[in-house]
Amino acid sequence: MRFRVEPMRIEHIPVVAEIERRSFTQPWPSNAYRKEIQTNRTAHYFVARRVDDELDQQPSPEPGQTVSDGRAPHAGAEENGSDHGILGKLSRLFRGPAEGSPPLEAELLSIAGFAGLWLMTDEAHITTIAVDPIYRGRGIGELLLLGLIDRAKQIGARWLTLEVRMSNRVAQRLYQKYTFKEMGIRRRYYSDNGEDAQVMWTDPIDSERFREALRQHREVLARKLGHHD
Ligand SMILES: CC(C)(COP(=O)(O)OP(=O)(O)OC[C@H]1O[C@@H](n2cnc3c(N)ncnc32)[C@H](O)[C@@H]1OP(=O)(O)O)[C@@H](O)C(=O)NCCC(=O)NCCS
């Protein structure tokens, strides 16, 4: 199964919003993504998409599967008892032509995650990153992070930074691979449960340590994802 990172478009937002609801206890509303894409000049958003022909062999959620960052499943995932995930919702959105799949439908069905950043002077602030629970643990979060790092370099950032929940060890481990370190704490940053945020920063993007981490992990990931360029 191959994946590609590409710019997020308005048409992607219904799927992005669904992954958002499945991933965060305080999801952004869909119109936040619309605004980010249409009006925020500092914003850069991406989706990770499957690019093979295996759309009819989508992985199904394991029974009792939970969100891997330890967050409570969002209300939308629980409301229909047996959670058929994004595919069920999409099929409702796209009930229509009986024959063939319109290209947009196939494109939307192939979205596995998304991520974004804001460039503020020479700092790239990662605003979000999420992978649909059924696709987690396969390297897609890391692929998205690499996409953000590549864009940050292109647009002249010197560091990357982000906030992450103190309890979100999965995300912290992902960031640590790319030299992110805890540099501060924002007390009671998350209003849903009053949790603190760790503020993490990378080494300078042009430092030897950062470049080496990038080179090593990119290679390993390419092998894991079967991307042999
Ligand atoms: C964080 C998230 C994006 C990771 O995506 P993913 O596709 O599952 O992660 P990957 O498969 O690319 O794994 C990359 C690294 O993350 C860490 N990681 C992933 N799953 C992990 C797990 N279950 N336990 C511990 N570390 C884990 C590891 O460091 C892993 O690298 P490794 O394979 O060399 O061990 C995903 O868990 C997610 O969407 N979580 C909910 C939203 C969220 O918390 N976003 C971050 C907000 S700050």
Q: What is the CATH first-level class name?
A: Alpha Beta
Question: What is the residue-mean pLDDT, rounded to a whole number?
Answer: 84
Q: What is the general shape?
A: globular
CATH superfamily: Gcn5-related N-acetyltransferase (GNAT)
How many runs of DSSP E, i.e. beta strands? 7
Return the CATH architecture.
3-Layer(aba) Sandwich
In what range is the share of β-strand residues? 15-25%
Number of domains as seen in the coordinates: 1
Overview of the structural elements:
The chain is α+β, with helices and mostly antiparallel strands and 229 residues long. It has one domain (3-225): 3-Layer(aba) Sandwich (Aminopeptidase). Helix content is 37%, strand content 24%. A seven-stranded mixed sheet has the order 1-2-3-4-5-7-6, with helices on both faces. Strand 6 (181-190) and strand 7 (195-201) form a beta hairpin. The longest helix is centred in the last third of the chain and has 18 residues, at 208-225. The radius of gyration is 18 Å and the shape is globular. The two termini are 15 Å apart. Residues 56-84 and 91-98 have low confidence and may be disordered. Bound molecules: coenzyme A. Coenzyme A is lined by residues 23, 68-69, 129-131, 136-142, 164, 168, 170-171, 173-174, 177.
